[in-house]
Design goal:
The protein is an all-alpha fold and 207 residues long. The protein folds into two domains: 157 residues, no CATH class; 38 residues. It is 66% helix and 2% strand. The chain contains eleven helices and two strands. A two-stranded parallel ribbon has the order 1-2. Helix 1 crosses helix 9 and helix 2 runs parallel beside helix 5. The termini are far apart.
C-alpha cells in the first residue's frame, strides 16, 4: 500500500509526458548542490523546493519549509549529495505543467521529496534518472503513485505492476537478501566441514 496516498487515484499525466520532461532536464539542475556552510556547489536545494511548492499552488506561508525540511535540503556532509541532487531532478519533474494545473499537490509533493526520495537516492545515482530510460520511468511512476494519480491510459493494476517491475529499491532489497542467504549457506558449509574434520580427527585419535 502506498504510504503517501490518502484518496483513490485520480487521472494524471501520461508517463511518457513525464519521462520526456526528465530527458529534457536542464544542465543547471544537474550541477553540484550547495551544502550547508559550504561555498562549493551551485544550487541551493531548499530554495528550489520552496519555489516549487509555490508553483504547485501552496500559499507562501504554507510553502515555508520547516527547520527539519531545511536541514534535509541543505545537507550537512558529502554523503548527502546524492539525495540533494536527486531532489533537484525531482523538483524539475514536479514542475510539469499538468501537475501544476491539477492544483493542491504541494503537501503531497513535499512529503514525497522528504520521504520517498531517500530510499531511491541510496541505491541509484541521481543522473541515471535523467539519462536512463527505465530509471526515468521509475521516477515518473513513483511520483504519480505518491500523489495518488493514475497514469493516463492505464488501469490501477497495470500501473502498480509496472512500478513494482521497475523498483530499484525492491531490486536492491532482493539482491541484499540473496547475498545474505548465500553468506548463511557458506557459513553453514564451513561449519559442516569443520565438524566433519573434528569428527575425523576424533576417530583418528581413538584408533
Amino acid at each position: 500500500m502506498n504510504p503517501f496516498r490518502r484518496t483513490p487515484p485520480r487521472s494524471g499525466p501520461a508517463v511518457e509526458q513525464l519521462t520526456r520532461r526528465l530527458a529534457e532536464c536542464p544542465e543547471e539542475f544537474l550541477l553540484e548542490p550547495r551544502l550547508a556552510g559550504s561555498t562549493d556547489g551551485h544550487i541551493e536545494v531548499a530554495a528550489v523546493v520552496a519555489d516549487l511548492l509555490v508553483a504547485l499552488g501552496s500559499p507562501e506561508p504554507e510553502a515555508k519549509l520547516s527547520p527539519q525540511a531545511v536541514k534535509v535540503w541543505t545537507g550537512t556532509s558529502p554523503g548527502d549529495r546524492n539525495l540533494l541532487s536527486l531532489t533537484l531532478v525531482a523538483a524539475w519533474l514536479c514542475h510539469d505543467r499538468t501537475l501544476r494545473e491539477l492544483g493542491g499537490l504541494g503537501p503531497a509533493v513535499r512529503r514525497w521529496l522528504l520521504e520517498g526520495l531517500p530510499p531511491l537516492a541510496a541505491v541509484v545515482a541521481p543522473e541515471l534518472f535523467v539519462s536512463d530510460g527505465d530509471r526515468r520511468e521509475e521516477l515518473a511512476r513513483a511520483l504519480l503513485d505518491a500523489l495518488g494519480l493514475l497514469p493516463a491510459g492505464e488501469t490501477q493494476a497495470q500501473s502498480a505492476d509496472r512500478l513494482r517491475a521497475l523498483s530499484s529499491v525492491e531490486r536492491a532489497r532482493v539482491i541484499e537478501a540473496t547475498r545474505a542467504q548465500q553468506q548463511r549457506a557458506r557459513e553453514l558449509r564451513e561449519q559442516m566441514a569443520s565438524e566433519r574434520a573434528r569428527q575425523a580427527a576424533a576417530r583418528y585419535s581413538s584408533e
